[in-house]
Amino acid sequence: MKDLIIPPKGWTKDMGTPERTGKPVHLTIDGVAITVPAGTSVMRAAAEAGITIPKLCATDSLEPIGSCRLCMVEIDGHRGTPASCTTPVTEGMQVHTQTDQLARLRKGVMELYISDHPLDCLTCAANGDCELQDMAGAVGLREVRYQKGENHFEVRANGETNPRYIPKDSSNPYFSYDPAKCIVCMRCVRACEEVQGTFALTIEGRGFDARISTAAPDFLASGCVSCGACVQACPTATLVEKSVEEIGTPERSVVTTCAYCGVGCSFEAQMRGDQLVRMVPWKGGQANRGHSCVKGRFAYGYASHRDRILNPMIREATDQPWREVSWDEALAFTAGRLNAIRETYGRNALGVITSSRCTNEETFLVQKLARAVFGTNNTDTCARVCHSPTGYGLKQTFGTSAGTQNFDSVEKTDLALVIGANPTDGHPVFASRLRKRLRAGAKLIVIDPRRIDLLETPHLGDSWHLPLRPGTNVAVLTAMAHVIVTENLTDQTFIAERCDLDEWADYAEFVRNPDYAPEAVEGLTGVPAGLIREAARAYAAAPNAAIYYGLGVTEHSQGSTTVIAIANLAMMTGNIGREGVGVNPLRGQNNVQGSCDMGSFPHELPGYRHVSDDAARAIFERAWGVTLDPEPGLRIPNMLDAAVGGTFKALYIQGEDILQSDPDTRHVAAGLAAMDCVIVHDLFLNETANHAHVFLPGSSFLEKDGTFTNAERRINPVRRVMAPKARYADWEVTQLLANALGAGWSYTHPREIMAEIAATTPGFANVTYEMLDARGSVQWPCNDDAPEGSPIMHIDGFVRGKGRFIRTAYVPTEERTGPRFPLLLTTGRILSQYNVGAQTRRTENVVWHDQDVLEIHPHDAETRGVKEGDWVRLASRAGETSLRARITDRVSPGVVYTTFHHPDTQANVVTTDNSDWATNCPEYKVTAVQVALSNGPSAWQESYTAQANAARRIEAAE
Amino acid sequence: MTENKLVRMANQIATFFEIQPSDRAANVAAHINDNWSPPMRAGLLDHVAQGGDGLSPLVLEAAAMIRPARAS
């Protein structure tokens, strides 16, 4: 028997229809008085009053359609029995949800439904988790009087093949679609439209012939992006997770945070014992509001993949096979090497790389290990290669390195300017929220060399695509500023109140120069001047305009300048400090924001305080009982340069794969090979581990407690749902290593690390695990000035005081096309894969993307004799690789595009060591290349594979 | 680190500050002091001492304000 505790602990009730805002309306339901906002449905009002009206086609994530008729009610003074889901409340309304008439009618409805539904409940995957079953119970259905007749579920009827029977579709790797169980409530169709915005599903036929259709042979061949919204919406087992079919229903649920992109979706990890049954997006998640994408929803199988390394391993030299050892032996070996290196070469020969995939607490400990135990500021993080220019640019202009908004803000946006980002692939759940707004009429400007999917949003209104040449962001944005200033479209009140006026006057004069006019830069940028003018006018005219940007902004030699140009645009139009506006960096990894906040950079202590700041250093010196170095340490590229130069010898890398993710692979490999002690702490033997001496097994996000901070500065709890498979959580491993070096740390739980962060970092002063448990999440700054956290920043004034305008002149990158390398390569991501692919390649997601391909324009392909699917050689001055071509006009002539998810393609062999002037963030987005037909993998790829295979050998146990 | 790289990085920084209205050299020096490790700064200053081949005039002007590495 079920535990009859209603509602069960942690249960989030389905309110039936979406929440509304409006004036209060008073009504009575079954004698219970209730007040709800105008526009609320009777169904939702009843739910608010604690009364559950039977329903099938309604759910609170979707607009109601009143199709199933199960939710009918009686209303005094109204004729008939209206559907409560589509009937809005009115003042003084008297509603009855349970009368003899209603009971009889509902039984009739259920009887009809059940007459065309297979009664295989005991062996059905939804057994115990089926709304149809629940409703049959709720209305007291005891018999089905209809004769067996035409139906959709029997394979054979009357000895003949049943023409209405459609076999189960198992083509999607994660869920199945069984039309026999479908009740045509259209929840899946509506979820695909309203929540996800893909419109992959529809209804074909009418009445008894109505069927759900993908308009394709099967789900996999359709436009479905496997976000899971339809599966979640389905009230029966028609759409059900294959994991539930295999394992059974979950018995407990733990709310945690996705470990993929910077959106930071909240999920319920639904468990049976210590086995994860499924990840279901949590309605209470304030970043995702109950939505998910294929990665977070389904691609968690890597956490239990057979490639996981579960024992520590060491080796004297990297040409030897690995030797599995005990934790004690591994730590003793590592400490011995590190001490010897420090003795011989000094403390600055050591360094660490913190992970943007690990928790705040783990990152904090790794930089503490460098600063307090190694005695060096040589700490950096993969944010170096993605959003370090955001840190610089926003700190200079606004005063702090963070996005200004929460994701909910998009619901108030009238125009979104998306530059250098591909949200439908990189930040899918945010993209769905943005698309919802675009369908409601918000305008869209996309500045991108490629025609991204966002531009193909169904029901998109006014939109502009500025297909600029890679590397000319600053020219385009400064030209937009020129238009806004010369056409007097600025917000003078905002500027006068909020910005430094001398700097504004200087900047305004600077951009008035005709050299920055759209007509003047058209030749450089390739964007028609008229288009830039239209976009600038639209941005300035929108009541609420928001800028969303990604790595197509930062990963350039002028990355920091571009971020400044973005901030200038937002300030001059007054688009800062309220809902619907702002400057929003879309962070690549789950904890990029957090790893930056936690002092991962070599020049900044936690909370973005410079290491030369005596007062800030004193706080940590007191807390840690050590003296800290006041000089900045080495950045990742500097570490590699110093290693090649012979002065940098040891590197502890937690949860990053710099050999695959960082530019100029040969240079990275040379740097790693020159070190005497490379410690890789990871789930898998990644590419970097090919050059490592010590491998410490890591723990997945399911195996530890901690917090991630997403792109909207939201500190989200990560909760342990199973024991660490390799015995220790990552924070424990760092502590063991520190203690092997004599540190004497004694943390027993990550909450104690958070307490240390709060005690030392002003923006986190009031953050505790108890608060996160109570509130779900909180956005920093969270301290006595902002006890509830800070959804929107710079409301009454900028963090630095007055907003600062800074001149932004376009400087062409040194990476130029020429006769040898006439094309420009730019790189990006795809929906189904994530970053270097270490996680997603170890899931079924490979069915969507099993190799990186080179997108090339038909004109460029034709002149080279390249056809769809041909092997092509992609060469730059840094190196060459081979991959298959895809011919598309998504890219402009002269531009080619690829992803970097697969190690056997290694797009980064081709990228160069050019970098951002301020932060050394690599210029991934612009590489001059040549493309030519080839026979297959390059010699380099083959030798790389051979070396990788040799380096991954593990000695057989004796 | 090779001198070439240091020269390139320093010139890139100078290019940004060159067009700013004031304190150009001071800002170049401050950016390098804030972000470069002592050995990198020492490498650049050595190169300046040897004539500063390839460095932009603004970097050479800023050199006097670049903090030398402390003896440790």
What can you see in these coordinates?
The complex is a heterodimer of chains A (958) and B (72). Chain A contains 29 helices and 36 strands. Chain A is of the alpha/beta class and 958 residues long. Chain A has 5 domains: 24-138, Roll (Ubiquitin-like (UB roll)); 250-300, Single Sheet (N-terminal domain of TfIIb), CATH 2.20.25.90; 326-377 and 591-779, 3-Layer(aba) Sandwich (Rossmann fold), CATH 3.40.50; 388-585, Dimethylsulfoxide Reductase, domain 2 (3-Layer(aba) Sandwich); 823-951, Barwin-like endoglucanases (Beta Barrel). The longest helix of chain A has 19 residues, at 327-345. Chain B has one domain (3-65). Chain B has helices at 3-18, 24-35, 38-49, 57-62. The mean pLDDT of chain B is 91. The chains are: A alpha/beta (958), B mainly alpha (72). The interface between A and B is medium-sized, with 33 and 23 residues.
Q: Which key features would you list for this structure?
A:
heterodimer; A: about 950 residues; Ubiquitin-like (UB roll); N-terminal domain of TfIIb; Rossmann fold; six-stranded mixed β-barrel; B: about 70 residues; 4 helices
When the domains of chain B are counted, the total is 1
Largest sheet of chain A: 7 strands, mixed
State the CATH class of the largest domain in chain A. Alpha Beta
The radius of gyration of chain B is: 11 Å
Uncertain regions of chain B: pLDDT < 50 for 5+ in a row? none
Write out the strand line-up for the largest beta sheet of chain A, numbering strands in chain order.
Answer: 15-14-27-26-25-16-17
List the uncertain runs of chain A. Answer: 1-10
Beta-strand percentage range of chain A: 15-25%
Number of domains of chain A: 5
